[in-house]
Amino acid sequence: MANNTHGALLILGGGSNMLFTEDFEGLVLRNEIKGIEVVNEDPNTIYVKAGAGEVWHAFVLHCIAQNWGGLENLSLIPGSVGASPMQNIGAYGVEIKDVFHELSAYHLESGEIHTFNKEQCQFGYRESVFKRALKNQYIITDVTFALSKQPVLKTSYGAIQQELEAKGIDQPTIKEISEAVIAIRQSKLPDPNVLGNAGSFFKNPVVSNVIFSALQERYPEIPNYPAPANQVKLAAGWLIEKAGLKGFRKGSCGVHEKQALVLVNYGGSKGREILDLSSFIIDTIQQQFGVTLEREVNIIPSHENIL
What we know:
This protein is of the alpha+beta class. Helices cover 25% and strands 28% of the residues. The protein folds into 2 domains: 2-148, Uridine Diphospho-n-acetylenolpyruvylglucosamine Reductase, domain 3 (2-Layer Sandwich); 196-300, Alpha-Beta Complex (Uridine Diphospho-n-acetylenolpyruvylglucosamine Reductase, domain 1). The protein starts with a strand and ends in a 7-residue tail after the last strand.
């Protein structure tokens, strides 16, 4: 995941949520700030600070080993700790904002370290202030999470409950929830070490109740989730699959055969070809459903105005 770009400077975390459409003409730095420490605690909560360069999944496993709850549903997400609040990463009913306490960030212009609380980060769906108003201005250096000593388990989202039942588990621990999430992700998502991909390529679109009602009349089975401001969140993967694009292939790139949200490079495709494929998918979904998909992957250089 990317943390920051600034002129001819590109700061990388894990780099797993990026698509390069051409060579980057500038300096690329990888954030390798390490360290995990408990900075405070009370009877119910433990506050854990992690360096931005820590591998996200390794950090999650570390917290689970200590029985610190809150991150288990976010297991096996690729990337770094520092990029997690920038993207407000989420999975299986949990987002970073649910467990976030504060972060420190280096201001590129002044050289000062600033602290941001949850409100200042302006978290949204796969969004934060660092992707909008403060884009290209900061490098996140560490993140502090507020984790639970008495974990509240979330098993209702996705296939977690079914996975637990299949294993005969009716009173799961956070470790067992993590293992269920890992099993589900491994069954549906390609390993980037084997098949090139940047994870989920599109955000789940949020539409008005009016648009959703019209869609539900045509597609009664359409998955939907409540969203703020009297809106409804749809499943981008379902829309892509319903449009007949799951497993679709164009040259040496295509839509993954098991997870329609993931675009894959079978070998030899350039970044521009992946971007063109995503544009084709966006156009197809717009024409069939009247819904506009938004890319979740960071495009380098920025192609924000390209649909």
